[in-house]
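[job 4471] stage=fold_predict status=RUNNING
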Amino acid sequence: MNAAETMGTDLLEIITMRLDSLSAAERLVAEAILANPAEAAEKSIGQMAIAAGSSEATVTRFCRSIGLRGYSNLRLQLAVSAERRRGDQADSGMALLGEIDQADSVQEVLRKVAFANTRAIEMTLAQIDEDALSTVVDRLASARRVMTFGVAASATAASDAAAKLALSNCAAMVMHDVHGALMTTSLFDEDDVVLAFSHSGRAQEVVDVLNASRLRGAFTIAVTADASSPAAKAASVALVTAAREPRFRSGGIASRTAQLAVVDAIFVLLAHRRFDEAIEAGDKMHDIVAGHVITDHQGM
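[job 4471] inference complete, writing structure tokens
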């Protein structure tokens, strides 16, 4: 099932998140819809084309670009999203999907941040390609070595992935320096895996590491929000996240949450595959660190 037709996703969020990956003509359609979703839901395909200063063919291509089968599906999903937003505002007294404004109270900022993070998780896991995810888990489970890589805000997800993979009995390491990553992968081959993170999919360091790794024969994975990005194209498999960043996006707020959700999904699926072994390993890990946990009695 396509992302935009998956239960629990919001079409307006999907359109906003995919703006940067649309063609110039498709972006005009997106902007016309976002300007007034309820009104757009009432338009015929011809009327939408006129409103966007575009053509009916472009409107049809736009529908496919956001994961819809056609314009009738777009109108239906728009009506649902518009009604949902009216409900959100009526229930909360604020536009939860809106940007963080200077006049917002502390409570409003906290609620908007919470909503952005929660929706990033829900939408990412609702629309992720299950076949691609299964392939990733297969390759990680059988890999000789795994290197995770990410820079800036994506470095957090790379570190978390390496730690969780190590706990899954994978020989995993994390790199944040592009020189170190390139030197490491120069020794990789078809038995090794590189798992790289870039929300935009346009971080030059990530693209360089993915390309170099594939040249060595390694299986490469990109976790990115843009399926058409250079990083996605450079990888053997792309796992596409869904996150709409509020203002101050340079901090990697919702995007980081979406990446961590993918890491958690991989970790749990690896454990699920080795169910009994994973339970036994978890018990061993719990026992080995039990002596380092301060009990209520010791803390008194």
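[job 4471] summary: The chain has two domains: 3-93, 130-287.
[job 4471] exit 0
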